[in-house]
Amino acid sequence: MPIKLEIRKKNGNVWEYVRLDEDDIVGSSKQHLTTIDDNSDKSVIFTQPYGNNFAEYKLDEVAVYDDSTGGSIEVFTDLPEFQNRLKTLGNPSFYSDAELVIADLISSDASNGIILGADGKLYASSSGGGGGSVLSVFGRQGTVVAQSGDYSMAQITDGIPSGGLENQILKKSSDSDYDYEWGANVPSISSDADNIAVIGTDGGLFVPQGIPDSGSANLRYIFASATNPQEPTANTLQINNVDLSLATEIYFSSTAYPNRSVNNILELLKQGDALYLQQSSDDDFFINANITGEAVDNGSFFTIPIEIVTSGQPFNPNSFTDLIVYHSGGGNGNPTNNLPKLVTDIIGTPTYDIDWLFDTWDLFINAPTTFTESNLPLSGTNTKVITLYVQGAFALTFPAGWSTNIIGDYDGAVRNQIVVEFIKTGDYAVEINQPD
Prior knowledge:
Blueprint: E1 3-10, E2 14-21, E3 24-29, E4 35-38, E5 44-50, E6 53-59, E7 61-66, E8 74-76, H1 79-88, E9 114-116, E10 122-124, H2 132-137, H3 153-156, E11 168-172, E12 180-185, E13 198-199, E14 205-206, E15 220-223, E16 236-239, E17 249-253, E18 255-256, E19 260-261, H4 263-266, E20 273-279, E21 286-291, E22 296-297, E23 301-311, E24 320-327, E25 342-347, E26 351-355, E27 360-365, E28 369-374, E29 384-391, E30 396-397, E31 406-407, E32 416-424, E33 427-433
């Protein structure tokens, strides 16, 4: 006859043991369980006090019911699982001071996701511990299937912007958490010729210190009419081609105008440097070139090998030219950021260009002159102030816009200080002063 034992936990840790023969309650007791043993034939033996004696029953199955929480009946046929379940429910029949209880193995640390399962064994909840993706994925075998408590891709990538380009840097946009945005690309070194940029020891871009940018508008020459290679006389220069775009050599006298010895300057020119040569009276006549080799000292003049980057119209014979020499720091003959700050010139033409790349001008006019202007600052972004020192008893006409907001008048009999501030396109502030 099948015999089952049903053990019920009541409120206040009171236990009731109900023995059932098929569907009938044969007997019950509120006394503590004395012995549950695993017989040699693997059947479960239940021994219960019966008067002054004990009654022993061979059980087919054991059921546990936690009546204190209104749980469901749990049926066991395996003795260890049954014992573990009674221990987790606090049944005093299975505790002793020397006994290791499974429940005692569970850490009390905050957010621990380990609990005792319905079978009395340790169980890691897929939603416990606040780290669903870690607790629920670790321990799974084969293809990992999403379970309750797993973090979604949206949660994992929260705060990381989509898109971005190759080599682009992800950067913080504020002090708040998870607010990132795509920034500039990881810097890399250009493969352009003559580039001297390198990677520094800290991983950033580094330009080694070279010869300081040098040059002076006072380094002036007179362009000689002859272009065939020959020895230029003092104060003059020659070029080996009338077509400036085809020039490959320039010949500078070791004496610049006016009788200035410049041997020490010319002998420093070398490959990697660059030069800018312009006719003083007109910026349409110019050479912008890289120096392709060492300067050759011929005694009274130097030969400078060049490669033309850009060029203008051929120089007029016997015209003054301004020579600007600068050290190339990775550019290709671009003197924009290396031009000297001072321009000194004697004007004998009806028009003269004021280039805003220069800061200061020292000019003497020998004829009525109209100023034009070029390379103005970017309107709405930059303002700039230039200063002109001008003398000459001839009519002077300013560029459009300079006279709109002007203080003072030009006096050609004395040296005039003309301060011009560029505010935006067409908007200037101009002040003219003379010495007391």
